[in-house]
Amino acid sequence: MSVHTFDTMGTIVSVRVDDELGLVDLEAVRAVFQRYDGVYSLYDDASPLSRVAGGELQLADTMPDVRETYAQALEWRNATWGLSTPHRPDDVIDLSGLVKALAIRDAGAVLDGLGAAWLLTVGGDCLSRITPSTPTWRVGIVDPDDAAGLLGIATLDGSRRALATSGIAERGDHIWSRNGRSHFVQATVLADDIETADVLATTIIAGLPGDLDRVTETWNVDVLVVDRDGEIRATPRAAEWVSRPTSVVG
Predict the structure, then answer these.
(1) What is the mean pLDDT of each run of 10 residues along the chain (250 residues)?
(2) Whole-angstrom distance, CA of residue 41 vs CA of residue 250
(3) Residue 106 to residue 13: CA distance in whole angstroms
(4) pTM for the model
(5) Name one Pfam family in it (predicted).
(6) Are 106 and 191 in a shared domain?
(7) Alpha-carbon gap, residue 21 to 41, rounded angstroms
């Protein structure tokens, strides 16, 4: 197995391949993240989205990819009852959450060409590919009350190849919430694709307890959440990831 890491988009990317990963393929993966960062970063004044935020460029005048990504973000906003939104409270368009998922998706498409099993981890979000020789990947879920500890271990296998975790443990209350303060401190979602996993993890953090039920009723996903009192709630499969007492939902 080969393991490679690099910094991008303000976080660390880790690539584990059940085979050798050549320099050309590694650079192709890195280029995916660099391309998305160069277009959508709000920390780079030269990026098209920064220019839109600064009023120098109209969204309608951006490249088609930017408009398409914004339209996709609006579709997710409608699907998640307004909880996953591309608009910050100050009306700045911020596509960073969805863009990270899209970059992971596209980097995964590059890795799929290798034919080997692989695990791509980006700031705690994961996408994987399995093979008969590597039928599962096991991924640790950070304990929001102990950054050095693990809350549990999730298993990625079959079509459930994407895992995303959203929360306030590392960055504080950075996610807009329906009632102004997140009820849940961490949400982990296992899904068939990384966009769904990432968006729904954010949706749960932004919503109220009832919105968690709506997510599990609407989407076929596995969910593990921790609230501010330390109570753990999970769907049946996700409940198996942890050894602590867990309330089963969905």
Answers:
(1) 94 94 95 97 96 96 97 98 92 94 98 96 95 95 89 93 84 53 90 98 93 96 95 96 84
(2) 36
(3) 14
(4) 0.93
(5) ApbE
(6) no
(7) 28
